[in-house]
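--- STAGE predict ---
source: upstream dedup step, 1 unique chain passed
mode: sequence only
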Amino acid sequence: MLSRLPDPPHHLFKLEAGQFDAAAAAWRVHVRAEPRTTLDDENFPNNLGYCVLAREPAKGIEVLRLVATCSPSRRTRTTASVRPT
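--- STAGE serialize ---
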């Protein structure tokens, strides 16, 4: 009988292990594979980052840095579709 392979560890586990680049790469792979879940995947770590920031500032900053690095909606948006009025 075939069974489902386990999902790879969440990128936040890699971040906790001190592997920022690996965490960022894992998040980017996930976003490319599942673009519809990007907003959910951005909101959770963003909210978590602020919660952790209050208790463990260094860890909270790393979570927020990961969100800022990998989140498509946090990047500068183009204004090509915006017409001046």
